[in-house]
Structures are given as C-alpha cells and as structure tokens.
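Continuing the series of single-chain predictions for the mutant panel. This is the parent chain; the variants come on the following pages.
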Amino acid sequence: MKILKNRLYLISYGLAIFTFTIFSYSHANGSGKNFPTTKWQTSAPEEQGMQSHVLAQMLEHIKDKSLQIESISIVRNGYMVMDAYFWPFLKTRKHIIHSCTKSIMSALIGIAIDKGYIKSVNQPITDFFSDKTVAKMDELKQSITLENLLMMASGLKCQDSYLYGWKGLFAMRSSPNWAQYVLELPMAEPPGEKFEYCNGVSYLLSVIIQNTTKMRTLEFATKYLFRPIGISDIGWAKSPQGIDIGYGEMHLRPSDMVRFGWLFLNKGRWDSKQIIPSAWVEKSTQGHIDATLFDQYGYQWWIDSKGYYAAVGYKGQRIFIIPEKNMVAVFTGDLTGRESLMAKKLFENYIIPAASSPEKLPPNTKDQVRLNSLVSGAAKAPLAGLSWISKNKGAAKDGVFTRTTAPAFTFKYPLGSKKSAINSSGQVMRMKTPLDIDFSASVGKAPEDIKLKNFGPKFYAQGLENLGSNIKVIANREITLHCGTKAYKTDITWLWKNSFPITTLLVSAYKDDKFVFVCAHSWKNYYSAVPIVLSLSFK
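Parent structure:
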C-alpha cells in the first residue's frame, strides 16, 4: 500500500601561519541561487549561518575514532563551506558512489518521461521488454509498473540486498543475461504493496532508458543531465550485455556529487535552465512506501522524517539534501559493518546542528582557524590504523613496503593506497589502491614437493577454489627480479563468488627456505596491477 507523506587565506585576516587555504569569504550571505560554473565558490561557515566549532568537533570525532571517511563536502546557500579530504583520498579523484547511482537513474527516468521517450510511471514494464520471452509471465507479473520498480516494490523475489548477503545479486551477475534473469524471478507478493530493496530492478531502469531512447544510458545522462550541470568526469561500468549498471558502479568526484544534490535542492533547475521537471523532483523525493534504513522510500531516494532525503550507497557514500536548511552534504568513504551507517549519524549530530541560523553569524576567527587546520591535517596525515607500521612484518611508507625480518624484501605500490585487514594465513601486509586493486605480500614455509614453477598454477590457484570459480591460469613464466633472484609470474583469471571477474597477478619466489609472493587482484585495472608485483626485490 502506498503511504503518501510529504518534508569560507580567510579574507583579510592576515593569518600567515596558513599556507593552505580552505575558505574565502563571500561579501554577503548567499541567496541559495548560486550555481557553480567551473567550481564552487567558497565561504566561511559563519557567513552562511553555520558554526565552525561544530564542524571542527565532527572532524575531531572522525580522527579520534579513525573512521574511514574519505571526503565530506558541505554546500549551503550555494557556497562550499567545508570541503574536507582525508588521506590518502585526493580532491581531484573520482570515487565509486555505489547505490547513489540509483538516485541518478531516477532522475534519468524523469528526464526520459519529460522528453517523451517514456509515457508515464504507470506503464507496465512489459511495454519495455516486448523483445523478450519471459517464463512465468503470469497476470501478477504483467501488472508490475515502472513506478513499482522506482519505489522498490516490484513484488519480485530478488533476495539481493544485504539482508540476504546479496545472494540474488551474485546470481544475476552469474546469469547469461541480467535483464532476463530479473524478469524471470518468481513473484513474492503483489506489486506495490511491500518495499523490497532490489539491485536488479534498478538495473532494469537502465535497460529501459537504453531501449526507449536508443542511446546508452551514460550517453543519455551525459547529454541531458551531466553536461548541463558541469559534470564531465564520469566512470560507469557496463554489464556483459553492454548496459550501464543502473544500480551502481558509477564513479564521480565528490564535488560533482554535490552538483547533483544541488540540482535536486533547486527542484531540477540549474541557473536559468530546467534540467529535470520540478514535479518529478518533488514526486521522486516524497515518501511513497515504508522502508528500512530510513523511514520511507521515494523513487530511488531514501526519505527521512527529520526533513531530508538522501542518495545512499554502500560503504558510506551519501548525498544528503535538506531543503529547510538550503544545504547539501556529501560523504564518501570506505566504511564497513556497523560503521557503514556513520555518515547518517555525523550528518544528524553535527552538520544539521551546525546550520543553526538562516542568517549570517558573527565571525568566529578562532574556530575557523581550528577548522581550517583540521581540514588541512586530514589531507596530509593518515588516520590511525590506515598505514602499515610493524617492527616484525614491515612498514609501508611513501609508496614502498619494506620488510626487515628475514626474508627481507621491498616492493613498490601506488601512492594513496590504504591498509586493509589481513585475510589469509601467511600474509604480512595487505592494502588497496585508489583504483580498488587489492594487493598483499605473504611469507610462509615452502610447500613440500612443489617446485617454484608450479607454485602459482597449482598451489596458489587451487586455493582460489575456496573463493570462487572458473579459475584459469592464462600465463606462467620465469622472470628475474631486479635483485637477480629467479621468480615466477603467474596470471590467473577467475570469478569471485562465482560472479565478479578478477585477474590475479602473482610473483612468487623461494628465499631462505620460505616462499614469498606478492599478488594483486584486479577487477578491471590489470595494467595498473602489473608494476606492483614486478617490483618485488630481496634485500
């Protein structure tokens, strides 16, 4: 049943101690209609009715708790009042936004309706898939509408959310045709009655855009959404069928995530041009159905009773929009477990209270300096626990991991890589690059009766069988490391959890009666992974 519920060098302060400037004063409080052309104008928080000391408390809390937040951007009245980036994440880098992609898909559906490619949200989805023969197409399934997909109430038995360990998502990705898989899912209940988060139905939205517009979804988005609001640097993965993945796997810079949020805050209008129909913005950000995580769900947007709505992505990606405060806040991160909900707590406990006045507040030089220092420091120094420093196992610093305990070795890694938790026996370190390449170094007792040339193809490859399937050794050759040690480089392709294609690069050697290997698991950045494993050198 539908439930319809309607919700700033600080200018002329002469602070020579700062060489890194975060904020610049505006001359007057923003009107809220300030749109960035190439970049956001900046402002001291107090100029926009926000309290610097509360924002400083938030950054201190993140530091004290070593929360793996990677950026926080806050725009109020059209001015960037805080733009913080946490080591090793860089301001210029794109970040995966995960399921925040879904809210962008919603906007694209609204644009497609406005331009006449789609009639209305009331269209049955069978209209968009007339080219497919769908098994088990009963009357109940035939009654699923586009609106049912948008509000996560398709009635399909998806089982692809965290509640099910994403079982259905892995099954879809393993199938020969993702859309066909989703359409042939059994019905669990009548459409429109129950919220059931489903990545598969958001994928269908992208298929619908491509089928109706005869354009790739990214092409359509670039022409009608991204380019008009100044977003040009977009990454978006495709399915094996060539469909941009509507439920996630999009990469944007945090500042561009703010642009998207600011567009919605201004009811789809960018400067003098209406990009998304205002009626669509209003309808898609209303609560249509009771939901989990937040109180309600709109059209691929989460709605909170505290008066804001949000685009929400895995591991702490968030775009918060709070109209009453004329404010957008964006978080990116690498949060896991219970900490994955921390962005919501930070937004509610610090950012909303910081926006205490609709008018300009008196200047607060002391706390603005404090906030400035915290933002600068966050970009320069790692939080506790994010860098490898160990007397016995080695240290990672300035792009080089060095192990001093025998067998001693070094290897290079990309700057900006971050510590990950050990996940297998013998590992002495593990990290992840900014391009999501997982790499590690391991040391252990040499396996009996396993020659070096067989270590990768037999010993290591066999171990991957516990993690996935379709394991294929595509290359295995002897190499000589820079130090003169003979080693083997092995390339292996496989499917993690039987669904996600991985290429593993492995360099293995025997040293001091122990095996040593460096491996890198690449989702799609194979050539970026090669220098890591080939840089292994014994001391």
